[in-house]
């Protein structure tokens, strides 16, 4: 009976073994015991750094001032008889602005002329008398004293004629001063006097002011330290002077818009202000439409020089470490990520000008750098936006764009 019982369990044992084998095979097919597949390499977008010539400029604050300024003052005393200009209008050099009452000056001129005529009428008889005394002196018909008195009288008569000639000239000049004229062409402001006002010669208060606005001056300030830095860069070759366009200046208005006409750098002052450590640069700007008025605040974009081998990189490819230092990630020849510590010069449009930290030919990561770390192996592809236009200002831009 034991043998019969043992035989009845034999098929069950083989069934259990077969089921276990099937479970084991099913587990292998579902992944148990198999090595996981390696993760794909991260992909980053890079741009190859290439040197290029860049025109470097700096923005300096300043104010406008009139090219010529003339304060109108009377040169004789009198009553203003008439004002002959419209306030705020353009006047020409020599144009009559005020008429001072000429009557007393006309009387003085007529009186001087009459006295001159009288002196001139007396001169011939006195001269003839002196000549006769000279002839009589030879025959000793007159004394030497009489002859000397006749010569002195002639000299006195000539001097009197010269005196009254000068008086006539002075009276004529004073009469001309009653017509107050414009010494320069320009725009005249408001008048400080009206008809009937009493004015005195060379009074401290001006009658009006004329300002020539075309062209106009723009006076900007630059620090002496900045000037020394520029000279040092020119001497070391980091910058080269642009002789053809180095004196051209762009003007930005106080609302940020660009002035349509270029100015010309006239000179740099030779004295540094001890209080501010800066000096004045004077720029001459065309102003035919009188858009610029004296006293306006503007910014002048002055050229520093040409950086022949400038390295420009997109700003999105530069980040900062916890210390605030600018850093960048590059892909080396082996396809590994390397970190670089940068020195930035300035922003030019949407790019940074690099002073140190990168070299020409290196591949800078501009997209995907958040997914990689230094020493990681990556797949580098060209940046699709590498040729996209940039919003470069007239201040600093690649040389090809500024010409």
Kindly summarize this structure in a few lines.
The protein is 29% helix and 34% strand. By secondary structure, it is of the alpha+beta class.
What does this structure look like?
The longest helix is centred in the N-terminal third of the chain and has 36 residues, at 103-138. Strand 17 and strand 18 (351-356) form a beta hairpin. The protein has helices spanning 2-29, 103-138, 144-177, 224-236, 399-402, and strands at 43-48, 51-72, 78-83, 90-91, 96-100, 179-181, 186-188, 198-199, 208-223, 248-252, 263-268, 278-285, 297-314, 319-320, 326-331, 337-341, 343-348, 351-356, 363-367, 379-382, 397-398. The chain is elongated. The chain folds into 3 domains: 48-64 and 214-402, Efflux pump adaptor protein, beta barrel domain (Elongation Factor Tu (Ef-tu), domain 3), CATH 2.40.30.170; 74-99 and 181-205, OB fold (Dihydrolipoamide Acetyltransferase, E2P) (Beta Barrel), CATH 2.40.50; 103-177, Helix Hairpins (Orthogonal Bundle), CATH 1.10.287.470. Helix 2 (103-138) packs antiparallel against helix 3. It is of the alpha+beta class. It has 5 helices and 21 strands.
List the helices and strands and how they pair.
Elements: H1 2-29, E1 43-48, E2 51-72, E3 78-83, E4 90-91, E5 96-100, H2 103-138, H3 144-177, E6 179-181, E7 186-188, E8 198-199, E9 208-223, H4 224-236, E10 248-252, E11 263-268, E12 278-285, E13 297-314, E14 319-320, E15 326-331, E16 337-341, E17 343-348, E18 351-356, E19 363-367, E20 379-382, E21 397-398, H5 399-402
């Amino acid at each position: 009976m034991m043998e019969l019982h043992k035989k009845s369990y034999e098929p069950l044992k083989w069934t259990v073994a077969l089921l276990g084998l099937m479970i084991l095979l099913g587990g292998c097919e579902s992944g148990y015991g198999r090595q996981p597949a390696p993760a794909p390499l991260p992909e980053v977008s890079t741009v190859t750094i290439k040197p290029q010539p860049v025109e470097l400029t700096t923005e300096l604050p300043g104010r406008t001032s009139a090219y010529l300024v003339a304060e109108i003052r009377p040169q004789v005393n009198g009553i203003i008889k008439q004002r002959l200009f419209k306030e705020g209008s353009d006047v020409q050099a020599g144009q009559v602005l005020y008429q001072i009452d000429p009557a007393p000056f006309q009387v003085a001129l007529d009186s001087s002329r009459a006295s001159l005529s009288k002196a001139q009428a007396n001169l011939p008889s006195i001269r003839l008398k002196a000549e006769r005394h000279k002839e009589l002196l030879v025959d000793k018909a007159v004394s030497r004293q009489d002859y000397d008195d006749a010569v002195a009288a002639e000299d006195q008569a000539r001097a009197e004629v010269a005196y009254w000639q000068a008086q006539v000239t002075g009276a004529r000049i004073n009469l001309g001063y009653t017509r107050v004229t414009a010494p320069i062409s320009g725009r005249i402001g408001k008048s400080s006097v009206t008809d009937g006002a009493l004015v005195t010669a060379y009074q401290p208060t001006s009658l009006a002011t004329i300002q020539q606005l075309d062209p106009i001056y723009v006076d900007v300030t630059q620090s002496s330290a900045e000037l020394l830095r520029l000279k040092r860069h020119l001497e070391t070759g980091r910058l080269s002077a642009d002789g053809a366009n180095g004196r051209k200046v762009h003007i930005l208005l106080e609302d940020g818009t660009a002035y349509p006409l270029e100015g010309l750098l006239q000179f740099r002052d030779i004295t540094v202000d001890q209080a501010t450590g800066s000096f004045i640069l004077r720029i001459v700007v065309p102003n035919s439409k009188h858009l610029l008025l004296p006293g306006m605040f503007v910014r002048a974009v002055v050229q520093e020089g040409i950086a022949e081998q400038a390295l420009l990189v997109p700003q999105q490819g530069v980040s900062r470490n916890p210390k605030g230092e600018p850093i960048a990630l590059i892909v080396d020849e082996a396809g590994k990520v390397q970190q670089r510590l940068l020195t930035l010069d300035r922003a030019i449009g949407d790019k940074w000008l690099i002073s140190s930290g990168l070299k020409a030919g290196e591949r800078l990561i501009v997209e995907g750098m958040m997914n990689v770390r230094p020493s990681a192996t990556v797949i580098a592809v060209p940046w699709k936006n590498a040729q996209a236009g940039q919003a470069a200002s007239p201040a600093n831009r690649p040389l090809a764009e500024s010409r």
